[in-house]
Recover the amino acids of this structure.
């Protein structure tokens, strides 16, 4: 597979995962985009759809990581950027294969509690968000050479992924304690994913449209 097609896989992953999540969440009986986490769409009715979404998204994201590694060749960010994206891909795949525990009343009628499978799913989510955020910061240093706007955008995106994910965890805890019901844990988690996948689309598109303007090779110092 050519570099071009692997970079296009990044665009495909960035569009596919959030769109399917939002479309399914908006039409799933008993599910609230405001209240319930994205991973909870992997349980209950139509759970198979999100399992397929996560696995296909992980495959596309993994291919994008390979294409990005080849496009960057060597130098700053050429190793750790793709590695962190691959980490996010693995996290997404595991999250698809190991469903989360029922929580916040979804799926309806299911007993809530913490299981070993739920712990594995949480670890996978941590890998996903860490990978999406960390890769943005790493690539900000490399692609920032093409313009300060790239550096600012990627750093902002990396920050938003962590801020939204962390806020979602706090909102979830406040909800389970009965302090804030219904808290926007679901909306915040969806926004964290959206911030991460949007920068994936932006970088992939930038490399596809203007490869000559992007710093894909390490700069050589003059004598």
């Amino acid at each position: 597979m050519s570099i071009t097609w692997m970079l296009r896989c990044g665009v495909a992953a960035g569009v596919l995962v959030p769109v399917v999540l939002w479309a399914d969440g908006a039409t799933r009986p008993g599910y609230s985009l405001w209240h319930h986490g994205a991973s909870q769409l992997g349980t209950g009715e139509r759970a198979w759809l999100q399992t397929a979404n996560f696995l296909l998204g992980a495959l596309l994201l993994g291919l994008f990581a390979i294409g990005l590694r080849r496009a960057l060749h060597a130098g700053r960010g050429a190793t750790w950027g793709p590695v962190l994206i691959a980490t996010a891909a693995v996290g997404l795949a595991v999250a698809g294969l190991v469903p989360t525990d029922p929580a916040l009343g979804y799926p309806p009628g299911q007993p809530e509690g913490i299981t070993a499978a739920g712990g594995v799913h949480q670890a996978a989510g941590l890998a996903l968000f860490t990978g999406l955020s960390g890769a943005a910061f790493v690539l900000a240093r490399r692609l920032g050479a093409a313009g300060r706007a790239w550096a600012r955008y990627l750093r902002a995106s990396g920050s938003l992924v962590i801020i939204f994910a962390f806020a979602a965890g706090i909102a979830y805890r406040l909800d389970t304690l009965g302090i804030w019901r219904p808290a926007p844990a679901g909306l915040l988690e969806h926004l964290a994913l959206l911030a991460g996948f949007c920068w994936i689309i932006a970088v992939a598109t930038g490399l596809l449209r203007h490869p000559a303007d992007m710093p894909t090779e390490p700069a050589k110092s003059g004598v």
DSSP finds six helices and no strands in the chain. The mean pLDDT is 91. Residues 29 and 45 are 8 Å apart (CA to CA). Residues 148-176 form the longest helix (29 residues).
